Amino acid sequence: MNLNTIKQFFIGIYLTNKYGFKLKKIDSAKEKKALRVAYAKDQLNSINIKVKVLNAEKLPNNGQYLLVSNHKSIIDPPIIELALENSEIFGLWIAKKELYNNPFFGVFVRNAGSVLVDRDKQHMSGFFKDIKSGVEDGASIFIFPEGTRNKTNNIIGKFKDGYRLIALKNRLPILPIFIKTDAQKALKNALQKPKIEQTIEVVIGDIIEYKSKEKLDVVYKKMFNII
Questions:
Q1: Residue 69's beta-bridge partner residues?
Q2: Burial grade of 194 (CB within 10 A; 0-12, 13-18, 19 or more)
Q3: CATH number at residue 83
Q4: In what order do the strands lie in the sheet containing 49-54?
């Protein structure tokens, strides 16, 4: 771990808690979205990373969706937030229990707009109830269908089946987003060479009907030409 990595670790903790406590004081989805975008900009600017959106014309300006994206890096959520900056779409992130209880990032995750997923079967009914409540309040749902970060050499990992139930139960069209640039490599480069400027490309896909019976990972690969 080099000096810049340590520096960025503390910057990340500072920004996450700074915005986490700001978010705790507001309930408006519009205000939460604005703060999440501001947080994402500060986090990525601190490591000299920009986000470029491809097929931006395909991004809806508003509406409710189940947003799905590949997941390689811890900076993927801020990348998604910036990709959606010019849209009014606000979503609740599906967050693991470990993030809720994290001493460094928990305050942000709990207050930014999220739904806790606890894989213990006895808690899953509460999970789907929280999602339904969020959708009824006008929010979209943001999920990484791989379930966790993909640490393999494959571009994407296998998608879990939970996304289909969320889409069907809440009649949410699926909005596919593909982080084309390897964000984990970009993060590693940023920590090793802080002065280099990097751009991460994000591709917006075509809306998929929630009733679609095709396997999402198959459709996703075809849509984004993933081999």
A1: 177
A2: middle
A3: 3.40.1130
A4: 49-54, 198-204, 174-179, 66-69, 140-143, 91-96, 114-117
* Count of domains forming the chain: 1
**Residue 158 and residue 221 in contact, taking contact as beta carbons nearer than 8 Å:** no
Which domain covers residue 195, as residue numbers? 3-223
Locus of tokens 């089946």: 161
**Average pLDDT of 94-112?**
87
**For the chain, how many residues are written?**
227
* Per-residue pLDDT at 227: 83
Instruction: Give CA separation, 147 vs 30, 90, 117, 122, in Å.
Output: 27, 21, 10, 19
Hey, which bits of the chain come out as E strands? 49-54, 66-69, 91-96, 114-117, 140-143, 174-179, 198-204
Which burial class, exposed, middle or buried, applies to 161 when counting CB atoms under 10 A from its CB (0-12, 13-18, 19+)? Answer: exposed
Q: Which residue type, as a one-letter code, is found at position 144? A: F
Q: pLDDT tier at 109 (50, 70, 90 boundaries)? A: very high
What pLDDT digit, counting tens, does each position of 60-74 carry? Answer: 999 999 999 999 999
Report how far apart the first and last C-alpha atoms of the chain are (Å, whole number): 34
121: pLDDT strictly greater than 70 = no
* SS3 call for 66: strand
